[in-house]
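Sorry to interrupt, but I need a hand with the structure work. Could you write out one complete protein record for me, on any chain you like? Could you add the entry underneath, on a fresh line?
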Amino acid sequence: MPAARFVERLNQQIAYELSAQQQYIANAAYYDGEALPRLAAFFYAQALEERNHAMMMVKYLVDADAEATIPGIEAPESRFADIVAPVSLALEQEKRVSDQIAALAAVAREEGDYQSEQFTHWFLKEQIEEVATMSDLLKVVERSADDPMRIEDYLAREVPSSREPDPTAPAAAGGAV
């Protein structure tokens, strides 16, 4: 069974992941309202990814015979000053999640919970990709804020509409993909 401190922190992380999901849905809805379908689709896909991260964590806890608690979360920010703000917020969020996952891995290591530490490794790798993706997108959005169609072109050209599932990803509760 995972260390009690790790279980507590992983349950907190589930809340953070679900909160990120909600924020990305809010970002997507904003871009949908601005008639920027590729930005909207990008954030809808990000929302599903965050949900799946939470479900991976739920499954780990269930499989490890630990209690998974599904928390309530605060409403996301849904009003933005301009088209740059949602991406800027997303980058801040991804950096914060990276720090949270690193702290989660540290707790597992401190507790001598090597299975839980191993579980966090995929998420650490994933966060490097997430921060890089949001950082690049923010640069493009900042440069192209006066011509949003350039952002849409960038997304069409550089971001695949669907990604192959990562075979090294942890299994998710409910068969999430």
Summary: The longest helix spans residues 4-33.
